[in-house]
Amino acid sequence: MLRYILFRILQVIPVLLGTTFLIYFMVFAMPGDPILAMFGDKTPSAAQLERLHAQYNLDKPFIVQYLLYLKGVFVGDFGTSFSGQPVSEILARTFPITATLAIMAIAIELVLAVVIGLFSGLRKGKLFDNVNLIIGLIFMSVPIFVVAFIAQYTLGLNLKWFPATVGSDTSIKALLLPAIVLGISLYATSMRLTRSSVIDTLNQDFVRTAYAKGLSRSRVVPVHVLRNSLIPTITNSAANFGVLLVGATVTEGIFNVPGVGNTLYQAITRGENATVVSFVTVMVLVYLGVNLIVDLLYAVLDPRIRYA
């Protein structure tokens, strides 16, 4: 097990270097001068441009900029945004908000997917199963911004069950509506995976053996069927969690959530290399960490899986 963990940690190094290099290059290749864009309609003097280019290392070749950035990362310096604020402070302010939103959304997704998927699998071909397959297909087909606008207008503005926007109030109550939107939009795929896995597990020999030994259905379903059916669901939810940490930009924009997605989008439009790459670097580390934890959970969920 320890050897496997060390091997996975070593795999992070080339992935991290490749990802940061690619993102840095894409930001570097964007047209226009980010310093000029920062001034908007105003025109800075040549001396100001030269000073700011030197301050943010924009007067150096691409590879030199990238190596200077890596040097700063290894000593804990993620650089400074064009607003003069350290990127580490921006991360410390926005990441907990997005992480909280992602955890709430994944919790909602898992509860819906496991409960509905389990009962659909146990009642294959019956009314409950068919209705939920149709509902799941609808949620898979409708774009998330449509679900977000409907939820915001209906539950937030008309019924006033939830705050319509988040803004400066980043409490769990304020984040609940966007979390519900994200969870509902994601649950359909996990529900189908759970359902398929439950149906497949019910036909396995060890389930028949459990029934043959006289175990009750209430014992066989949660211990033998559900536990062995969760691996594809957990894998999909882990991937969704990583996506939510960096990919909830649309939902964060609609609900005005001051999280990673909004900040990253603004940094991309302003061409802030250090901010964009630093955010992506942290997100890659988190995503790889989540996948490592999920791999280790496989052995807990399925005793047949062992790591040498």
Automatic annotation (TrEMBL):
Gene Ontology BP annotations? transmembrane transport
Q: Which InterPro entries match?
A: BPD_transp_1_N, MetI-like, MetI-like_sf
Q: Name one Pfam family in it.
A: BPD_transp_1_N
Q: Which residues form the ABC transmembrane type-1 domain?
A: 95-298
Where does the chain cross the membrane?
12-30, 95-119, 131-151, 171-189, 276-301
Task: Extract the coiled-coil ranges from the record.
Answer: none
Which cellular component terms (GO) are annotated to the entry? plasma membrane
Topology in membrane: Multi-pass membrane protein
Q: Where in the cell is it found?
A: Cell membrane
Q: Which UniProt keywords apply?
A: Cell membrane, Membrane, Transmembrane, Transmembrane helix, Transport
Family of the protein in this entry: Belongs to the binding-protein-dependent transport system permease family.
Protein name (Swiss-Prot/TrEMBL): Oligopeptide transport system permease protein
Organism this protein belongs to: Leucobacter komagatae
